[in-house]
Amino acid sequence: MHNVIEIENGVTRHPHYRMNKPVNLSIADKEQIAIIGNNGSGKSRLIDIIIGKYPLLLNEVHYDFTPSPFKLVSENIKYISFKDSYGDNEGNYYYQQRWNQHDIDENTPTVGALLEEAYQNAQNNTGYGLNETERTAANCYRDVLREQLYKMFHLSALLDKYIISLSSGELRKFQLTKALLSAPRLLIMDNPFIGLDTATREQLSSLLRTLISETDLQVILIMSKTDYIPDFITHIIPVRNLEVEEKTTCEAYILKRNIPLTTVLDADKAQRIIELAYTEEQQPAADDSGYILRCKDVAIRYGERTILKDLNWDVRLNDKWALSGENGAGKSTLLSLICADNPQSYACNIEMFGHKRGTGESIWDIKKHIGYVSPEMHRAYLKDIPAIDIVASGLNDTIGLYVRTKPEQKTICEFWMDLFGIASLKDRMFLSLSSGEQRLCLLARAFVKDPALLILDEPLHGLDDYHRQLAKDIISTFCHRKNKTLIMVTHYEEELPDVITHKLHLTKNI
Description:
By secondary structure, the protein is of the alpha/beta class. It is 31% helix and 20% strand. Mean pLDDT is 87; it is low at 84-94.
């Protein structure tokens, strides 16, 4: 057995991307790794060192990809980062673009075209160091793998769609398929199971287990959520406070891990949430029957594809709803209609806060009572401004801060950042934060104006065990206050707070 990756006294040349101690690490052939640590602990920095993104001062990373015939690191390692859950983070993406289909250039490649390109590139690159028989066998294997991936992820129904129009779960499936088609020697995945429905998570885990047992594939998973570690993982590399700790077996790690199972929110802080003043201006109007939201026969179509069909849904003031459904069932689309981010919302029979949609209220009239976070919002936040300004942007429902924050508003922002455990990050630039830290900022943004209606779409994506429990505690405490209504989407039942009173499950239209 040889070491596929070996790092000795690794120190990056750029001081801003260094760990607190030199990195010493070896990953042997056949070892399947999970890198585990809290948000901001340095997991992504370690991966950047492993893949050679940042050159080291003295000793470079040593690779031995035997028996792979390829020599380049880029040919042997494929890395799917957290942001790939939402597709490529390009600067020309804007928040509502997914639902503004008419804004998408018709020359934009489809899912099918991009996957075919990845497949052809993989086929063309097969053969270096192989004889004709071996090359034919390798390509036949890739054909079988492609068929298996398409079937597992139900990709046939997505091939004609633009990347920009996919749900976050569908985007994850696309990125996983694209990476696996290249048949890498080492596959690195950042939180690979987030955004995937239960059935797909189980299928992905089974597929990776099969590929590991039947090929030379090795995987490295970056995991914030540690209550589920796939059974094919053999070793754990803990990362804490920008230090890489000693590699241990999975069995040894599981025996001593500490997952918070009960409330972690400090009692004094919980009381501060309960005692927040609630003004009449924040009181949303309900209709005579007490409903703040009514959807009647709502239908959404894009071309030949039906997303929502004849949906009827009523939400009363103080209801706490869990919204569920498989990837692509229309959960985020429904929420985009409610928040008036989708242009089709004005063509639908929707009543909100006592007003029928399209009868004169502005988008800002709708949003002023709503606190919202979603994968699409996270993707759209490319503003490299201080974290506290990201939180403050929630006061005016903007992507970015365009109005100077008043002193009393800054105090409110600091209050919510402190509750979410990120007060020390307030002056850090948003894009320098880890994905989990960014998500905590966006959660604070959703609460900062003390909204009557919380709409939380996969709010705990990328959070470590402690911060997931903390966020659950904050959501639950907040919703115990007067006239607070909740709609929350998650694929993990255990992520739902204990205040849920109603459930709505959407079925995907075929």
